[in-house]
Structures are given as structure tokens and as C-alpha cells.
Design a protein that fits this description.
Length: 302
């Protein structure tokens, strides 16, 4: 559960943040999808590179791609802010996007793998990353008849949290917050034969060290631990931004993780496979990944 905010945040800063967030949400919602995305991208490219937090992205890029020139690094940084701001601007339009409409903004590769998990009478897990417009991954499940219970980090601002949930209402399935209460919900979902969706690209301080761009980074083991414990298939899915507000959703064939009886080694091996897949995606379109995460060991605390 999020911590109770102090009075200054609760009665001053949080309401101000909420007013700004709702105002932006409303403006972007009133604009056509393509126009909203374009405006968001312009704002992101214009403002983002000048923000202090962008230095974290530059440090992360230096760790992952030490061969990059300064010009190449800055181009990726601008692209990252363009993609992030477009994703924010597209968020109010989630309910109107039909992922499987052949004339719509999304091209889908691998829809049959969603149907496979939907019809196999087993629980399953989808994982993705903060790349492209990652919010579309869950729509790919919902609109093929497969609800996803999604793990997410609750906003500290309860007013903004309401806005998050409102925007994601188009996706069937529960929103499960990180934390002890969320763990109980995760276990209950899989025991009931449901399907989970989780982002696998963020740092977990008390996770396990797993290679990522040749560096051992602290990684949440829950994805592998749950998949092995419940013997369920795992599907990797990601969204690639093709141009503007046009996308490609790629859904990989289901995989299973080895269960040799050595739980620690099996989880480490499974998460090594997961991180390798994430790295492949990021290397293909580095400007579309959210480099602002504190992913590498010598970065700032998040």
C-alpha cells in the first residue's frame, strides 16, 4: 500500500499535481489520437532533454553502449523523451484503439499465441518492457478474450492513481499493486487459472543479480518463481512504435522454464533468458526504451 502522504503533500502538492494531470489528460483526450501523439512528442523532445533526471538516462546509456558518441547518445535521449511523451498523450485514447482492426493504428504479429493461452485451461504469464507504447500490450490480451491481471506500482498521489485506473479501464483484469498484499493477489490469480501481465525491466533492490548488457543488475525474480511454481507458459510481448501513433505489437510463442528441483539456479537461469530478451528489444530500438529507470548498479537511487 502507498504511504500516507504528509499534510503538505496531501493538501497542497498532490491536488496541484492532480489538477495538472487531469488538465493534460482532458486536452489530449479532446484531440485526435495522431494530433495528441504529435503534440506530446514535441513537448517531450523540447523539454525532456533539459530535465535533471535525463542525466540518469545518459549514465545508463554510457553503461549499456559505451561506444556511443555524445551526438548518438543525445539522439537516443531525444527519441526516448519523444516516445515517452507520446505514450502519455496517447493514454487517454486507449479505450478507442482496436488493436486487431486491420485499418487501425496497430499491426499485430503473433495473435495466435494469445489464443493459445486463452484456450489451454492453464494459468499463464505475459511479460513486457517500457518500450514503445507499452500500454497496448494488455489491450492485445483483452481484445482477444484474455483478461490480464496486471502488476503495477501505485502512485503516491491518490488523485493521480484514480486517473491511472480510469485510463486503464478498457483492459479487463485486476490491477495488482506491488507489495505484500499484491503477492497474495498474484498467487490467488494463478491458483484460479488466470493470466498475469508484468513489466520485467525495472530494478528491484532486494532481487537477484542477473546479466543485462553484460552487467549484473538487481532483478525481480517473481516472474520466474511464479512460472516455475505453477508450471505455466510465459509469453514475451512488446510494442514497437513504427511512426507517430502507429505501432507493431509482437507476441512471442509461449515458453516454459526448466524445473530441475534447484529453485535458486532455475530462477536465475529463467531470469537470464528474460533479461536477454529485453536486451534484444532495446538494442533494436534503443530510443524507445525508458532509460530513466535506475537499472545499473552505479546509478542514483530511484
Amino acid at each position: 500500500m502507498p504511504r500516507t502522504p504528509d499534510p503538505l503533500n496531501r493538501f497542497l502538492w498532490h491536488p496541484i499535481q492532480a489538477v495538472l494531470a487531469i488538465t493534460l489528460y482532458t486536452v489530449f483526450r479532446l484531440l485526435p489520437l495522431g494530433v495528441a501523439s504529435g503534440l506530446g512528442g514535441w513537448i517531450g523532445r523540447s523539454v525532456g532533454p533539459w530535465l535533471g533526471i535525463t542525466n540518469r538516462a545518459r549514465r545508463n546509456l554510457a553503461r549499456a553502449f559505451p561506444e556511443l558518441t555524445r551526438t548518438e547518445t543525445e539522439a537516443i535521449v531525444r527519441g526516448m523523451w519523444d516516445n515517452l511523451a507520446r505514450t502519455v498523450a496517447e493514454f487517454p485514447h486507449l479505450s478507442e484503439i482496436n488493436v486487431y482492426d486491420p485499418d487501425g493504428p496497430v499491426e499485430v504479429i503473433g495473435a495466435e499465441h494469445v489464443e493459445s493461452l486463452r484456450d489451454d485451461d492453464r494459468p499463464g504469464i505475459f511479460f513486457s518492457a517500457h518500450i514503445g507504447n507499452w500500454e497496448l500490450v494488455s489491450l492485445g490480451g483483452t481484445q482477444r478474450g484474455l483478461p490480464l491481471d496486471r502488476i503495477y506500482r501505485e502512485a503516491n498521489n491518490r488523485l493521480v492513481e484514480w486517473l491511472y485506473k480510469h485510463g486503464r479501464a478498457a483492459v479487463e483484469g485486476a490491477l495488482i499493486p506491488k507489495g505484500p498484499h499484491g503477492v497474495r493477489q498474484l498467487l490467488a490469480s494463478l491458483k484460479d487459472g488466470k493470466h498475469l501481465g508484468m513489466m520485467a525491466d525495472q530494478k528491484m533492490n532486494d532481487g537477484i543479480p542477473v546479466p543485462f548488457f553484460g552487467i549484473d543488475v538487481m532483478t525481480a525474480p517473481a516472474l520466474a518463481d511464479l512460472a516455475i511454481r505453477f508450471d505455466c507458459p510465459v509469453v514475451a510481448a512488446r510494442v514497437e512504435r513504427l511512426s507517430g501513433a502507429r505501432f507493431r505489437l509482437r507476441i512471442d510463442p509461449p515458453i516454459t522454464f526448466d524445473n530441475t528441483g534447484n529453485a535458486k539456479a532455475d530462477v536465475a537461469a529463467a531470469m537470464t533468458r528474460v533479461n536477454a530478451r529485453l536486451e534484444e528489444w532495446i538494442r533494436e530500438t534503443p530510443e524507445q526504451w525508458l532509460w530513466l529507470h535506475n537499472r545499473f548498479p552505479d546509478g542514483e537511487s530511484q
